[in-house]
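Supplementary Text 2. Reproducibility record for the structural model of the 854-residue chain.

All settings were left at their defaults, and a single model was retained for analysis rather than an ensemble. We include the record here because the model underlies the residue-level annotations in Supplementary Table 4.
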Amino acid sequence: MAEVEEKGRKPSEESTDDSEEEDSEEEPKLKYERLANGVTEILQKDAASCMTVHDKFLALGTHFGKVFLLDIQGNVTQKFEISPVRINQISLDESGEHVGICSEDGKVQVFGLYTREGFHENFDCPVKVVALHPRFSSSNYKQFVTGGNKLLLYERNWLNRWKTSTLHEGEGTITNVQWRANLIAWANNVGVKIYDISTKQRITNVLRDNVSLRPDMYPCSLCWKDNSTLIIGWGSTVKICAVKERDHTEMRDLPSRYVEIVSAFETEFFISGLAPLADQLVNLYFVKENSDHMEEEFRARPRLDIIQPLPEGFEEISSDALTVRNFQENECRDYQLEHSEGESLFYIISPKDIVVAKERDQDDHIDWLLDKKKYEEALMAAEISFKNIKRHEIQKIGMAYINHLVEKGDYDTAARKCQKVLGKNMELWENEVYRFKTIGQLKAISQYLPRGDMRLRPAIYEMILNEFLKTDYEGFATLIREWPGELYNNMTIVQAVADHLKKDPTNSTLLTTLAELYTYDQRYDRALEIYLRLRHKDVYQLIHKHNLFSSIEDKIVLLMDFDKEKAVDMLLDNEDKISIDRVVEELRDRPELLHIYLHKLFKRDHHKGQRYHERQIGLYAEYDRPNLLPFLRDSIHCPLEKALEICQERNFVEETVFLLSRMGNCRRALQMIMEELEDVDKAIEFAKEQDDAELWEDLISYSIDKPPFITGLLNNIGTHVDPILLIHRIKEGMEIPNLRDSLVKILQDYNLQILLREGCKKILVADSLSLLQKMHRTQMRGVRVDEENICESCHASILPSDMAQNFSVVVFHCRHMFHKECLPSPGTIPGVQFCNICSAKRRGPGSGILEMKK
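Retained model, structure tokens:
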């Protein structure tokens, strides 16, 4: 439970509850302040007996019979001397123009605050309550009620006289009355009644529950939530009553309205006042507690609770103990709770103190969060509600959060929050940087410094870079990569790195960073030297990006030693910048690298490096024999004699066979295959490629005394040479491995050839028939002849202009048309006419398909 701090409280007014916690993790719902100014002076000499609240002002009654009109701040605007004794109740109409006052000596006054005209009456008994009609200012509603031993209704008639009628009597003293619209609610010793002034009927009687409590010591509290909802608090019981319209079928002699109790519950303490707050209730409690040192009860501080009513109970939302002046001497009847509907203000009235409670706004919420050191939540709340806060600034809250994080030692979070809090305020940024330097945490803030359009002075960035350079080379290198070079003086940092390299000249991190700095400074040649020395992966990217090909002409060997594939690809992609001749010249002392370059060049284009093909033969023979034969096959520029010489020197049989066949010496090539390779399959394949009968004869002659070769020939020559020729030359008695299988395969191959021929014949006949039928259908179609067609001989229109004349037209299947008289004489075949045009062009003559006569 939160304790309300008093402003300007004297030492003698300290709280008696020293054991109560000052703090609570649960944020209070209301904030409190004492109504001061003129009220302080009044209550020093007098005591408050009652108060009523209007949206525009307050009306305070005292024990000495005075009524003060106050503004919202508690300043006195008007003072009325009403009676020498206690003012029991003050009532205002909705407009705030008329006031009704009753006192303990029986005086009742109803008058206009601006007219002073009204009702003045003295009764012979105390008048406890008075209530004006809410619309009393209107001439049609000049009504009010007073209550003492009985409830009297006063109405002004058309003669401007006051008419009195008794609404209720005989159940003890009227202790409270509240008027809302057409409904009047009052409380006496028995219970609460509601009267409908429009129908002049009493519609309910809500009995008091705890009859053991004295009504004068524990008075009833009444409050209208709206025009049809009455809240009753009496003793420790709360009832919420809803006024409802009765169905016409049930009325008979009953009132047109009835009351339903929608919620009723018991509270822990005695109720001194209540007021609505949206769908919740604000309850003022009078508290008595048992002392640990004394047997009797003592009066504790009153409590103001916010509760959520439920059908059969309630839920406590918040609870505050209020340290009001002289609370130890007050009784339940001495407290009163009034509220202002327009602004949700709640006034706690006691004889010597008036405390104002109001809903906490966003500024109050932020104050509480800051007080609890919940800076991050406070900053978030301020950002969300920046339009509604008046007393706080987002940046100041953020600075308080940063200070708190620094005090905790959470430097990384503090530095990260600087981005959000400091924004574009460069002065604050620099102050924070120097503070982080003082506490030795420049590294923490380095990654969050501004780098875009808004920048700090170069000296700030240089200071941080020097700090990293002293203690963390990797961190320094990271900053150089991440920070744009315009943030700092590049030459200053280059000199600093150079000084450190004097102590550690082989440090790769520093060398790489120095190369990056040279790149920023556009000294690419210096950067390239470092990258090559370090064999850094970015060297090729640097060359491409900044077109440094002129700088690498003498560094080709270094590049290829670092990464042969990337270097060769780069050189070949940029032949226009580094010529092939220049590369070959640079690689002349490194033949293995030269071979890689020329090999890739040949793969891309067989003709670009033709002048180096002769050199490539030796390079392939030395470093890459598997690719020598493909090279010899694809190249048309290498000298065959030189290639043959090299291959024969190195005894490269396959390459020598290829070269011999290329040079036309196929018999020698076949001989090498059979004698040196002894590979009958390769020999047969070679003979098939050359398709030379003499080679087949040589192959058969060489193989005739070698059974394995004969087997190979029998299995493979069936489609190129008649197997009978080979079989006749086999000596009788010679044992040939797998002879039966070979003969079976020859027969199968022969049968397969026969089947293939028959199949091809069938396909050919079917296709010929299909095409013939298609041609016949085409030639049988009609041909359109009209005025647009011309005679191919005389070039006149094929049809006469006068269709009545006789004419004769011949149309060929080739779509050429002639007048019959324009056709030349028939050919050698009687009765068959051919198109001269198609015959001349050798397309195959078209025969006449249509002869038109008329």
